[in-house]
Amino acid sequence: MNQPFDLKRKYLPRQGASLPSVAFSEGSSFYAILICHVTFSLRSTNSFQTLRNAGLDMSNATLTQDLAYSYPYDSKRLIITLMPINEEQMKELSIILAEAIKTSKTKWLVNLLPFCLQCDCDLPSLKKLAVLLDIQNIKVEVLLKIANEEAIISFFKGTDVFVNVRYHASLISLRLNKPTISIVWDDYPHYRNKINYLYRDKKENMDIIDSDKLSLNYHDELLSIFGSFLRAI
Questions:
Q1: What range(s) does the Polysaccharide pyruvyl transferase domain occupy (predicted)?
Q2: Rounded CA separation 47/148 (Å)
Q3: What is the pLDDT of residue 104?
């Protein structure tokens, strides 16, 4: 009666889909399942509100983090957020990541996350990086955008290390005390100032890399930084 019930996984549609209203009618099996449980694992307040709008009494229901995020993973997870970067920087980043992952002695899954909700400008760079990592036998996935703030936070909570070009991705990962490498561009001084501010507060979990260093000349230095972050997990 009181055991956690993963409603989303078995009965709710994926985000953005719709569920026929008949599923919520009092005579339906779906409705019978709902009224027999008081603890739900829901993706976000959107799912919570969907049940409330269907006429269900949610006064005793509890909105919790998705149960899947508390399950053990068979590999560690690294999230990368990007802005468009040139071919040389992309190639060097892929080589450094691959070498750091292989020398960490740990299984890693690399998630490439589009973080700009206003456009799809991140996707071409992420897809190119995915190809370069795949060639080097690194397990990698290009994810879909996650537009819901609560879903982003839950997803970040289940991640081990971040490599971010996107400022707000670093802001969230550092507020969750996640190890974060931030890559900054000199032609965005305001962005650099914000990253430096984060570093003053979270330097124990953070390192900053200038984009100009994504080249063969700084390979060993960057490999040391990336390697130390991955080995510390």
A1: 39-186
A2: 11
A3: 94
